[in-house]
Design a protein that fits this description.
2 copies of one chain form a homodimer. In chain A, about 35% of the residues lie in helices and about 25% in strands. The first copy, chain A, is built from 12 helices and 9 strands. Chain A is globular.
Chain lengths: ~290, ~290
């Protein structure tokens, strides 16, 4: 359903809109942030490409909008950014708020199939269908034909899998410290076990970037930018496994950059935000010149 | 006393150090953040100028380090930034934590004279003497001869007054939405009444930027950059009064920019962080070329 605009905040010559709407996918009220670059306001007839930024465990759509430093670069390129929440909130499911890596703040961008969760935990459909559809309906300045997707950690997993599952739908994808092979890491195993059931391994594979990239058609272009910090404790603990993704991709155009000394925090994201937005702009903005 | 380095976080090619030390001015443990630009690490023999950034009511030294986006610009210019806390914490003073605009998080960068507060609430001496002195002692890469000062809201008041009270000590000053005439606004009257007493109006004037700028020697150069958002509710409520400061300064070089539609938040600070760091760089970095 339509978005209620809770606040309009001037930012980098554009506006950050604080939005709320009732989601049909999650059956809960969902909050999000939408950054509109200066050109969306000064030239509303000029269609604006949009980047979907998916956040990581425990986050809402606020963290990256406040700390990620993507907006100045999006303002420069004339790109909008939407920062959705990472799960339904207040779904009144037993145990929903008991874990920081499962349930609230940890929707993992899948549609759950298990009892208890499947009624609300449909973040895949929410991000891939409902959210963009509602945005394009209400904000006519946004260009439904030029959408990129990015994310951090669990959100990097979301960005990679949603991109790979929908060839041609998203023009660009990048990730900061993504969970790249969830079926082989503790975070992913806990989440997929809970949302899909322990036995449903076929379903697990359908939401694993490393499995999905193997099936990507050889002749279809694939360019992915990934940054991972070498001082990232979750990387060191084997939660991210970007090597597996890179190896599975073979000759395809996966660029994994290991950033010396960087950790898993927003200090890492903000440091490379410019590179990522520039990367998306190459795909999202050049298209406009055709 | 010396700083304990609690964490070193890679950021924009430099490092954000999370520091803690026992302060002799406040008689409490004080936490702070110190950003060192890439050149401080790659060329430790090359002295680095430093900007002191004073935060506003309710903040610690973390908020602006995470949300202010001064670091990328400081990295570009080779400037360090220190983000101190805004008051002593845990001083065990009666009523210390009862108000968001007095006591904890609201030290107002003065040395209190009133019973109860004067033992710990010595943020003027802490910022103007103890903190830089300790930093220059421990971090030899920092250049004690090239120090700038800036701040937001209450911190803008701190930056302006500390600059004006110490001619020649700081090479540059700028402020975001500063409390510019505290003796004539509710925040300032509450704070000065509490820290100096209601009767001590002479002391009040000694920490009022508008009063201080009147006394600035005509032939001494004065260049100040101030940004204020026109949608800033505190500005509209008369808490900031930059007009009074500008008028009191007369022909002196005060640049007050009213930024259309911007509020009082870090979304405002981050949007103009580049301009402010550039302004400080003009004063702090050119000096190195002489």
């Amino acid at each position: 359903m339509g978005f209620e605009i809770k606040a309009k905040i001037a930012n980098f010559g554009g506006q950050l809109l604080k939005l709320e709407h009732q989601s049909t996918s999650t059956k809960t009220k969902m909050a999000l942030n939408l950054f509109l670059p200066p050109t969306s306001i000064s030239q509303p007839s000029h269609k604006t490409p949009i980047l979907i930024f998916l956040s990581g465990l425990t986050c809402t759509g606020d963290n990256c909008a406040e700390k990620g430093f993507l907006q100045p670069h999006a303002a420069r390129h004339g790109i909008a950014i939407v920062y959705p929440d990472t799960s339904p909130r207040g779904a009144k499911i037993d145990g929903e708020d008991d874990n920081w890596d499962f349930g609230s703040g940890a929707g993992f961008y899948v549609d759950a199939t298990t009892e208890g969760w499947r009624n609300n935990y449909n973040m895949y459909t929410y991000i891939n269908e409902e959210l963009p559809s509602e945005l394009f309906k209400q904000f006519e300045v946004l260009d439904s034909g030029r959408v990129g997707i990015a994310g951090h950690s669990m959100g990097g997993h979301g960005a990679l899998t949603i991109f790979l599952k929908n060839p041609g739908k998203y023009l660009s994808v990048s990730a900061f410290a993504p969970i790249s092979n969830p079926i082989n890491c503790p975070w992913g195993q806990k989440a997929f076990g809970g949302y899909f059931g322990e036995e449903n391994k076929e379903k697990w594979a359908q939401h694993d970037a490393t499995e999905l990239v193997k099936a990507w058609e050889e002749d279809r272009p694939l360019e992915v930018l990934i940054d991972v910090g070498t001082a990232d404790n979750f990387y060191k603990q084997g939660q991210l496994l970007p090597e597996n993704f890179k190896m599975a991709a073979g000759d395809k155009g996966i660029q994994v950059r290991y950033q010396e000394g960087y950790d898993h925090s927003y200090f890492f994201i903000s440091s490379f935000a410019g590179d990522h937005v520039d990367f998306h702009a190459k795909h999202l903005c050049n298209r406009a010149l055709r």
